Structure to design on (286 residues):
């Protein structure tokens, strides 16, 4: 029988992923246990502390929606910060935009970045070769508080893990305050906010906290099969602009056509539909 990896992220539920061949990586960094393996159904997989972070089969549904949706509505993003994101899938998507001058990826665990460079070239090789990419091995919370981060970024993507281990610092009010400080006027921040089916409290807590710091905030959805439970919630915030307005969607549609972006998940119709919330999710929005 093939070996299987089991993820037990949600209480009372587990998912099993059949492993193809031997584990490629199984080591403990200074911060977390890192595993990389090929799977029978989901492509290559990265897990941290036995929680799935990315698979090559469906990473686009996550990375593209955190980047292209806000970038196309914004229309003039030049500087992007990525909190976490050591697999570089989000950096790769952001760098597809020709107007971008700088993408700063800040990850606390340099070993994750090294291993993903070695084993996930399928999704990040272009990013590593792009001179606009700057990788900072540092604590993102600390980086956001640096004087030179103030008002620097048009987009901040919080590709944070679940709030366990080193990821705990990337949740809560102090973190959001620092994100706000680092945003340019007119900029957007996007955050992964869990799987509502199993983590409904994440939406309510995150949106309540965001509303305490940002004049505008909200929620949109994507579907990443490996993040089991159906819809994944992505939250957003800004100092003034709203995401998902009719004019914003029209602007994004026109920008998408001009840019000739190559995507696997994102398109203008998905962009518009992402803001349509099933009633049970809408009830979680404070």
């Amino acid at each position: 029988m093939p070996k299987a990896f089991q993820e037990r992220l949600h209480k009372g539920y587990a998912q099993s992923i059949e492993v193809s061949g031997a584990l490629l990586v199984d080591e403990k960094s200074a911060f977390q246990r890192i595993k990389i393996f090929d799977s029978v159904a989901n492509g290559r997989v990265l897990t941290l502390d036995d929680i799935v972070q990315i698979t090559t089969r469906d990473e686009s549904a996550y990375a593209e929606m955190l980047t292209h949706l806000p970038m196309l509505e914004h229309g003039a993003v030049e500087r992007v910060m990525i909190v976490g994101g050591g697999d570089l899938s989000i950096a790769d998507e952001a760098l597809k935009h020709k107007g971008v001058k700088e993408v700063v990826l800040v990850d606390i665990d340099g070993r994750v970045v090294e291993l993903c460079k070695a084993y996930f070239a399928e999704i990040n090789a272009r990013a590593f070769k792009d001179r606009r990419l700057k990788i900072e091995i540092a604590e993102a919370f600390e980086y956001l508080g640096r004087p030179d981060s103030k008002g620097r970024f048009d987009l901040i993507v919080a590709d944070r893990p679940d709030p366990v281990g080193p990821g705990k610092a990337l949740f809560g009010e102090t973190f959001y305050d620092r994100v706000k400080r680092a945003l340019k006027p007119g900029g957007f921040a996007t955050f992964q906010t869990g799987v509502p089916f199993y983590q409904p409290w994440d939406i309510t807590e995150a949106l309540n906290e965001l509303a305490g710091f940002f004049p505008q905030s909200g929620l949109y959805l994507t579907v990443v099969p490996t993040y089991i439970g159906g819809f994944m919630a992505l939250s957003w915030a800004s100092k003034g602009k709203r995401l998902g307005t009719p004019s914003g969607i029209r602007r994004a549609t026109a920008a998408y056509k001009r840019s000739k972006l190559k995507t696997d998940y994102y398109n203008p119709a998905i962009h518009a539909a992402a803001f349509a919330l099933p009633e049970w999710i809408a009830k979680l929005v404070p």
In short: Confidence is low (pLDDT under 50) at residues 163-171.
